[in-house]
Amino acid sequence: MIYKPRMVVAGLAIAAALVTPRAAEAVPSFGAQTGQPCTMCHVGSFGPQLTPFGRAFKIGGYTQGGGEGWASKVPLSVMVLTSFTNTRQDLPAAPQHYDVNNNYSLDQISVFLAGRISDYNGGFVQLTYSPVDNTFHVDNTDLRPFTTSFTVGSHDLRVGITVNTNPTVQDPYNTTPAWGFPFIASALAPTPAAQPMLAGAFANKSVGYTAYVWLDSALYVEAGAYTTPSGWTLARWGNDLSAPHGAIAGAAPYARIAYEHQWNNQSAHVGALFMRADVNPPTGIPFQSSGMNGQDRYSDYAFDASYQFLGDGTHIVTVQGIYMHEDQKLNASGGGGTFSLNQIRANVSYWYQNTYGVTLGWQNTFGSLNPAYGTANGKPNSNAFIAEVDWVPFGKAESWANPWVNLKVGAQYIAYTQFDGGTSNYDGNGRRAGANNTLLVFAWLTF
Description:
Blueprint: H1 5-18, H2 28-34, H3 38-41, H4 52-59, E1 76-87, E2 103-118, E3 121-130, E4 135-152, E5 155-164, E6 207-215, E7 219-227, H5 231-237, E8 247-248, E9 252-263, E10 266-280, E11 296-309, E12 315-330, E13 337-352, E14 356-367, E15 382-391, E16 406-418, E17 438-446
Antiparallel strand pairs: 1-2, 1-17, 2-3, 3-4, 4-5, 5-6, 6-7, 7-9, 8-10, 9-10, 10-11, 11-12, 12-13, 13-14, 14-15, 15-16, 16-17
């Protein structure tokens, strides 16, 4: 395959759509509503990584109260994210309005409508402006139209319904892609082309309707389906049908099961996820897809687990991992071919007094040869090691202006040993995987 700069630009655009910073839930309005500091719900005083209390708050439909005064009734919050991006070697082509390297950027400004409506419903809606590509769109949204809890014999049972715009955005565990590490990523650096469907293919371009049960704060079971809104709706959401997936044909079933055990300020969980979607590939015209040449089928299976040691809040350790396997039957875009894709994500974090954090992560993607990925050799294989250090001065009970001023300052480095199917000359033009190694320095503010 001949390497062309316009392919790089297209790849960067797709990558940016996949790695938009997954920032939500850690909104000050929730803290004011509950009367609790951010450390109660979040590891490291800042989201999105949840503690057991935070998971209970989310599964409970964001309905818990306890705050006092007028501030506890205001469901509005704002988030601003700015960063500096450096890649080991210059980009093959500069993103619009930016240089080929060493870019400062205002990545996003988000407004959240987030809080309880009553004891039986709540949720959040995120609206985001992205200065990088000058777009405004409906971002992560998780609405809980109804939830309640009751006693069945000697057991506590909570039931609920969620309507959301991103598969796994409603999930209470930080192993799943919507809230998994890294919690923030550069919108300007290259990222691998091949990603499982669960890792953002339908993020904020679908609507999911699921119901869940939570037994004895331990067993979590959820099931439902996702659909793709009309092109008219997507246009007004500010989202389109990007390659390679397109639009869900009919309804895509989704299921989740997890079991969590808590003891001595520690917790651990194991779980599994499933999603299957028949899709009409995009036509190249925004907001349009077509099944004229058949449909592609993606079936994703995932297994995840985590461990948290919270102790007394002085020393905190978390370990998280997920394995995703995808079967692909590409009747439309792959000539009827059958392919597979796998991805492993794992990370371990240490926090001191919920203020200073260090996280080490690993992501490995591998699978069968598939020209649909658009890589020079058709291979999906990529391997990355991630290191991040963070400082969060606020978010504690004694913090200034708690909970309305929250800041995370951090530095993240991603090192690639394999990228888009190769180590050296992966693009057919002599570029090495390590050329995409990325340093990201960021400031993340919510108020």
